[in-house]
Amino acid sequence: METIEVAPVKATISHAEFQKVDIRVGTIESVDPVEKADKLVKLSVNFGNHRRQILAGIKTERANPGEIIGRQALFVVNLEPQEMMGEVSEGMLFDLGYADDITPVLAVPERPVPDGVRAG
Length: 120
What we know:
Helices cover 4% and strands 33% of the residues. It has 1 helix and 9 strands. The protein has one helix at 15-19, and strands at 23-33, 41-46, 51-56, 72-76, 82-84, 87-89, 92-93, 95-96, 105-106. The protein is globular, with a radius of gyration of 15 Å. 18% of the residues are buried.
């Protein structure tokens, strides 16, 4: 396993502030390229009672971004929609490693759970 210099812990937040972040499990149903984007792909994610389009900058991190189709992962679902490259992202893929400059991996549940289950 690779060793990194661990970044300092961010400033302390209250439990009430953390409770504002809505992290849920979703199943990635499709991964499509975003036209003219070097890094972005468009994920269609099933959250049980609805689906969302979430843009993720994983195109250059994986030889085959489609390998994550069918996988469950964690997503932040209560961010305001953001437009990027002419597409709208309705959340954020919650991955591990990007902020520390290592090849990111999905944050996934230990075993399959129903789509839409909340973290925390």
